[in-house]
Amino acid sequence: MHNSNQPIKIIVAIDGHSSCGKSTMAKALARRADYIYVDTGAMYRAVTLFALRHATNEEGQLQPDLLEQRIDEIEIAFQKDFETGLPQTYLCGENVERAIRGLEVSQRVSEVSALPFVRLKLTQQQQQMGLKKGIVMDGRDIGTAVFPNAELKVFVTASAEVRAQRRYDELLHKGQEASYDDILKNVVERDYLDSHRELNPLRQAPDALVLDNSYMSIEEENEWLWDAFQQALAKAQDSCLDE
Ligand code: DC
Hints:
It is built from nine helices and eight strands. By secondary structure, the protein is of the alpha/beta class.
């Protein structure tokens, strides 16, 4: 039962293809609504970095058994950067924000995130984070597997070329080396792997609102999401009053 003195809070699930600007719009909404923002891709990336460091053989091949044995050692946390206010990802106490965004992790993350024991562990953590609602979470399976009852589900997409260009610009802006062709190849490969894995593949939830933002400005998509959020909040408030 909802306490009427407390403003009602909802769960916002934002899923979609890689590099389509999910996190930019999710962060902007969380800031405006004063909600917690969780980037679940960063969690899968952090596990991938751990796997590359501790669970590969001499040829660099992933050793799932080794990763499974050490899975409970993996501690992931988010903390805001003091100066920029941007969320930073920590792996076992180390700031790995930069390391997890590089191409090496991007090239291996689909393989690691397809492992059932990895998905199970991260899904449970994500569900814990949403217990009090007031959360905006972005990923691939948030509206389908993590929070199938989320009050607002959005499925974001854009053409592969537009997405590759965005990631390329983002890496250059951060002063990291990048090749547009390699990034485009990675975007297309990850689309395929993320949508074809056995457990919780990338799928549009039947009740998700679809947003193709190929030709939208960031301001336009932020306004679109804010309107959708206001409507979902009003609906949640109405159904609460009906109870
Ligand atoms: O959002 P991103 O590109 O940083 O995500 C990196 C990878 O993590 C993505 O290719 C698939 C995986 N992922 C996932 O399997 N499930 C999620 N909820 C989020 C990300």
